[in-house]
Fold this sequence. Notes:
Elements: H1 17-21, H2 23-44, H3 47-67, H4 73-92, H5 100-118, H6 123-132, H7 145-175, H8 178-187, H9 190-221
Amino acid sequence: MPTPRWMNQATSQEFSWSQALGGTRGVIxxxxxxxxxxxxxxxxxxLVPTLVAASAVALIACLIRLIQRQGVQQSxxxxxxxxxxxxxxxxxxxxxxxxxxxxxxxVAMSAAxxxxxxxxxxxxxxxxxxxxxxxxxxxxxxxxxxxxRRCDALTWMxxxxxxVRVAVQAPLWAAGAVAELGVAKLALGLPLFxxxxxxxxxxxxxxxxxxxxxxxxGDATA
Length: 222
């Protein structure tokens, strides 16, 4: 299972905001469809051209990566989200339903992170163990109790992050405030994600440094 992007830098000595955001190109690809949706909808108040414009932007971003023979995972993920939103909005004739899939996804993610802590299998701990090669029984190792608690806290943080998105966007969706919903999605999208990635790095960096130092001492002794 690949390590999620928010965990990629957890074991790094320094944090890169550019990497967390996916670079300039990643920011554009992630933000452009939603931004175009808001702008076109505000200018036209017509659903069809708005959906066509947002779909076209997402599709073009994906095609460019294919032509340049670059990784398309992020673009395909964005294209899928846009496509589902377009289908929902077109089927119901309501512009706010373009954002329904994103809201539902955030509900699911918030629940998944929360349940993982309750089940004593925190997702942050799971991916951190993968990234650092912790032994299989690390969850019951008394010497790693502090690390487990930190992973639990960070997992709750991610559950709250996704929950904030839902708390802000759900009322706007219910009110049919399409433009405001689009702005909220952009504001709570990549910026909040990058902040969560930074908090994860900051919260685990002391443990990562300790692991690195222990490994180096072990290699030197060997």
